[in-house]
Amino acid sequence: MKHGLLEFVVLKSINAESMFADELLKFLEKTEFSCPKGTLYPLLRKLCKKELITQHLDEADIGPPRKYYFMTKAGITRLKELESYWKLLAVTIEQINSEQIASDRSHLHPTE
C-alpha cells in the first residue's frame, strides 16, 4: 500500500515546491513515506518517462549540478485524479466505520 501512495506523495510534494531528489528524500524521512534512494530514484525516472514531472539540471553553489524536478500539466492532472481517488477512499472508509459502529451497537441492544 505504501508504494502506491508514494507516487501520490511525491507528486504532491513536487507540486508544492520543485526540488531535487535529496531534498525530497529528506522531506520524506520526516513522514511515514521514508524510503531509500533505491526506491525514490526509479520512481522519479518512471514519473519523468510518463511525462508527469520533468527535470532541469541546475548548477549548485557547491558540488555537482542538481536535477530539479517540476510538475508538468499531465502531472497536475494526474495529481488531481489521485487526490479525488484518495478522498473517495477516505469517505468510503468512514462510511464503513460508521456502518460497523452502528452494527456493533445493534448487537448490544437487540430488538425484541
Structure explained in plain terms:
With 112 residues, the chain is α+β, with helices and mostly antiparallel strands. It has one domain (2-108): Orthogonal Bundle (Arc Repressor Mutant, subunit A), CATH 1.10.10.10. It has 4 helices and 3 strands. It has helices at 2-16, 21-29, 37-49, 73-108; strands at residues 19-20, 53-58, 66-71. It has a 3-stranded antiparallel beta sheet with strand order 1-3-2. Helix 1 (2-16) packs across helix 4.
Question: Can you give keywords for this protein?
Answer:
65% helix, 112 residues, alpha+beta, elongated, Arc Repressor Mutant, subunit A, three-stranded antiparallel β-sheet
Q: In percent, how much strand structure appears in the residues?
A: 5-15%
SSE succession: HEHHEEH
CATH architecture: Orthogonal Bundle
Poorly predicted segments: none
| CATH class division | Mainly Alpha
C-alpha Rg (nearest Å): 20 Å
SS element count, helices? 4
Average predicted local confidence, pLDDT:
88
The overall strand count is 3
Layout of helices and strands, plus pairs?
Elements lengths: L1 H15 L2 E2 H9 L7 H13 L3 E6 L7 E6 L1 H36 L4
Antiparallel strand pairs: 1-3, 2-3
Helix pairs in contact: 1-4
